[in-house]
Structure prediction request, 308 residues.
Amino acid sequence: MQTAFKVLGQSAVRTLSTYSAAMASSAALSSKYKFETLSVSTPKDYVYHVQLNRPQQFNAMNSAFWREMVECFQAISEDSDCRVVVISANGKHFTSGLDLTDMGALMETVLGDDDIARKFRTLQQFIKRYQLSFTSIEQCHKPVIAAIHGGCVGGGVDLVTAADIRFCTQDTFFQIKEVEIGLAADVGTLQRLPKVIGSDSLVRELAYTARKMFADEAAQAGLVSRVLPDKDSLLKAALETASAIAGKSPVAIQGSKHNLNYARDHSIEEGLSYMATWNAAMLQSEDLRIAAMAAMDRKGPPPVFSKL
Prediction:
């Protein structure tokens, strides 16, 4: 009996120790990734979950959001505890796009009496800062999975086209809405969407008319690779996919993202040449030996890779 209690006691200590470590890790994460408009958590090993977190405003993108997206994804890019990111949103919709109630500084410049050259310089830098908010997703070393539900409007399309993988719910709609407020989309949609879906005609139709593209059409066009029935199943699918990616070699995964982005923007010959140089270095990684050994021993435990 005493032995049994001793074993139970040791088990309880181990459980408590694991729980305490998890709580400490969560507290450290909350301290490092503390934002007004975003919420960051770690639902699975090496998987970070970033959520747009202005649900009462339908996750409208205010000045704090544009700044915090850069801070968040630049930090995640260099965080060795993260290998994959899922980005989703709290509330009824993914995002309603630009927060028009928070555009006072921009409108003051547009309507001001400053010299046109100086207004141009100010507005150009303003737009570039906003563009960086989503370029930071594309440039993040870690793959980013966008889990989209409800409305994905205006800046939401800019955001998700910068992600690596896109899933959505059956009730999702996408809308390039900028022409309805008198401007051309300027934060990435017109540059990335044609390369995502491959139909110049469809991109132009969506950009010129501001009509809604619903989930089934988005899947058919290739904007999303999965359509799930509801938000719960969406997040489950996104996190399962993220976990599967996180179990692979981070050297291989991050190298794949980098070279996919490079190949998209260069010729096939340039991409092949760059890839040869890249892998001439990366094939020397310890990850190759670990993965090869695990592939040969299919009954053994899954491979474990060092942080990168």
